[in-house]
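Entry 14. Structure prediction run on the chain below.
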Amino acid sequence: MKTAPIDRWVINPIQKFINNSTTSGIVLFSSAFLAILIANSPWADEYHHLWELDFSVGFNGNFITKNLHHWINDGLMAIFFFVVGLELKREIIGGELRNPKNAILPIIAAIGGMLLPALIYYFFNQSGVTSDGWGIPMATDIAFALGVLYLLGDKVPLSLKVFLTALAIVDDIGAVLVIAFFYTSDINFVSLATGGVFMLVLIVSNIVGIRNTIYYGIIGIGGLWLAFLMSGVHATIAAVLAAMTIPADVKISEKIYTEKLKLLIAKFQKAKPNNNSTVTSNQLHIIEDIRICSKRALTPLQRLEHSMHPFVAFVVMPIFAFSNAGVVLSGDMFSQLNTSVFYGVFFGLILGKVLGVFGLVFLLVKLKWINLPDGMNNIHLLGVGFLASIGFTMSLFIGGLAFVNKEFIAQAKMGVLFASIVASFIGYIIIKYANRK
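Output returned:
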């Protein structure tokens, strides 16, 4: 089949780039690096003022006004959390978290990797406003961590990739709960109750069999997310809750789908062609039947996750990184590093994650209470501990919720960025060595 020039030179290379396992991590890191460059350039003032521009959304005299930075963190990141919610539901229903035996190890590792960082942060910040940042080093950036792991190629054991993925997903659950219960402002119970009504509508819609994703989008965004945005509970929580209501069942089974597809393909082969690039009316109807049949064989949950993942990976997260990672590396940078917030975040990630993930699992393996997955050894586990120390997106996000003071936010960013870079290199080297062993 002849390939068009636009496909050969533009579309196919872009698709290959997007489908590469390491690409999203590279784009995310590049966005953060670009933000740091601009924040320390002659355009620094324009960069910082850009995020302070106000935008209003509303109608009939009723408006919600927030600056661009808030719209990114409360609105655009809600899309990220929606996809996180879809991934969580898929893993719980049919993934690694479905089988308790397979889930117990990453759950233990994730719990250790959340508690130890919080305790280490608290060690450096036991009182005052800075103590509110204990949730910052608890998070793991799944895109970055898996991106580093996939740089090592096919030599990495599959069990290691599955373990890190499951650990990061459980970690995401923990981060969502921390945001929901500890990083909320004064709650407006009327708005929260309104959100509860919309949530109930979504649940009932799922039960009665509504599968239209646009319908869920309208109710989820126009109702649930908006109500949570006005309630004081962080709006990203609404995105996770909305994702949990997306149907995860199919209309036709695999067996019926296979049989129908065989019949439709046979019917298409028998249809008389018109010997040119267009199809006949009969062929068009058969192709449409194949499309409808395929749509019914796929769950709305997986369909949404698959279609939204590139947008989140290559638009939402890079924009978030670009707007949040702009740390000013001034002459007194070392004074910023010599602060309790920086120490708490940096050592919370580097030491807390490693001790929590590697230390706790290693201890339980030595006690013979649990076993490592096939193909994994203790050196692999140590490397995963460092990869789990890559907080980045989630840590930056929680840092913006924990502090109002810009100096504390900057110190937390420095801790996150330094820890993530150090953890990436150490984790990569350790796992590469483990593969050789």
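Strands lie at 54-59, 62-67.
Filed with the rest of this week's runs.
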